[in-house]
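During the reporting period the student researcher (J.K.) took over the structure-prediction task from the postdoctoral fellow and processed the backlog of single-chain submissions. One of the processed entries is reproduced below for the supervisory committee.
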Amino acid sequence: GLYPESHGIIDNKMYDPQMNAHFALKSKEKFNPEWYKGEPIWLTAKHQGLKTGTFFWPGSDVKINGIFPDIYKIYNGSVPFEERILAVLKWLQLPKDERPHFYTLYLEEPDSSGHSYGPVSSEVSMEQGSCKKYVYLNKYLGDIKDVKVVYGPAARLRPSDALFIGYGPGFKHSTEVDSFENIEVYNLMCGKCEWVALLPSEHRAGIDYRNIPKKSAPWASAPSQERPGRASTARVIPRILSVFEQWFHVPPMTQEKTIKRGALPYGRPRVLRNSTVCLLYQHQFVSGYSQDIVMPLWTSYTIDRNAKLHKGSSQVYSEALLTTNIVPMYQSFQVIWNYLHGTLLQRYAEERNGLNVVSGPVFDSDYDGRYDSLETLKQNSKIIRNQEVLIPTHFFIVLTSCKNTSQTPLQCENLDPLAFILPHRTDNRESCAHGKHESLWVEELLKLHRARITDVEHITGLSFYQERKEPISDILKLKTHLPTFNQED
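J.K. obtained the following C-alpha cells:
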C-alpha cells in the first residue's frame, strides 16, 4: 500500500551509495532485508495473529523485520505452474489450526516471455504483430553500442492499466468501475468488516477511502475529525503578524462570511495534525496560520477566468503569493513559485472557468509521505541570523475547478481537482533548467510531481472538501484519483 519511494523497491536493479550495494532480483543481495522499508501485508497479518502462506510472491522469501511468512518458498522459476497451484490448494485443505488465513501466489507469465521475446512474439501473442509496428532504432542512431533501453510503463505520462478482478461475497456482482491505482488494493485487503479480518498496519493507519466497489464499506463513512480546539477564527494576530497590516487591508469582521464564500467555497482545510491554527481573513483570501511553527499551513483563494482583466483578481494571488512567501523559500524555487502564480494559474483559470487554489509548505524530512511531528521539526530546524528557521522539504498546491466548465468554482456540482507536491530544492537541476525560460520546463516539472489529494493530506496533516454535500464515498473517490496526461499535453 505504499509508493516506491516509501517502500524502497524502486527498480528491479538498483544501487544504494550508503549501503554500497547493488540490488538485483537474481542476486544474493535480494535477501538483504535492509532494502525493504515497508511492512508487507503478510507481516501485518502475522502481527494480528493470522497465519500466512506465500508461494513465490516477491519479497516473501526475505526475512523482513526478522520475520518470514508461516509458509513460504524461495523463488525457483523452473517449478511448473500446475505444481504451484496444487500446493496452494493443499494449504487450503490443512487442519484448521495449521491452515493459513492469507495466501499469495505468483506466476511470472506472460511477463517473463514478454521480456525475453518481446510483446509481439509468437511466444507471447499479446497482440497481432506487423512490420509496420516495429521501430528500427538503427535508422535513428549512429552508434547503438552505448545505448541502454530502460523498459517499463511511465504511468504518469500515459495510461498503463492492469486488470483487477474481485470475486466473492464482499464484491458487487457484474460491476465495472473506473480505473484506480494498484496501491488502493491494499485498502481493500485491510478492512474492518464481516469479510476481512485484517486491519491496516500503522504505516497506513487512518486511510479510509477506496475506489473498489464493495457491498459494504469497511470503515464508517465519515470524514476524518479535526483535533479539538485546533482552529480558531481570528482576523489577525497583531503581536505575531503586525507586518500583515503593512501589506494588507485587514477586513472588518462583518466581511468574513463574504470572504469565506469566495476564498473557501468548499470549506476550510481541517487540521488533523498537532498544531494550533488561527484563520487569518484578508481581502479575498484566507490563511490558516500555525502558532506552533509561526507560518501559514495553507492559503486559499479563488481566481476567476478573466483574472488578467480584473485588477482585483490579479491582486488576490499577488497578495496570497506574499503570504505563502512568509515561509522560507530557496531562491531557485521562487523561480518556479513565481511562474506558477504569475502565469500558469492565470491560464488554468481561463481554461477551467475559474480556479480555487490552496497552497502551503510541507515538512517531510524522512520522505515517508507523512508530515513531521513538532519534535522532528525542531530537530531539523536551522539557525539563520541567530533565529531558528524551519525550511520546508516541499510545497503543495491543490487546484479545484468544475468538471462542467460552464460552472464556476463558487457554484460547482462536480469537482475536478488537481494536486502537486513540489520538492523544495536549492537548485533546479532536476529540470535541466539552466539558461532556459520558465515556459520550457516549469509546467513539465508540475506534471512530474502530480499527486492525489490524499497524498497531500497525508504529507500535510490537512483534510479537504469536508463541507461538500456529496456522499462521502464520492469525495473519497475524488481524493484518491490520480489523473494521467498524454506526453503531448
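The committee noted the following: The chain has 13 helices and 18 strands.
J.K. will present the remaining backlog at the next meeting.
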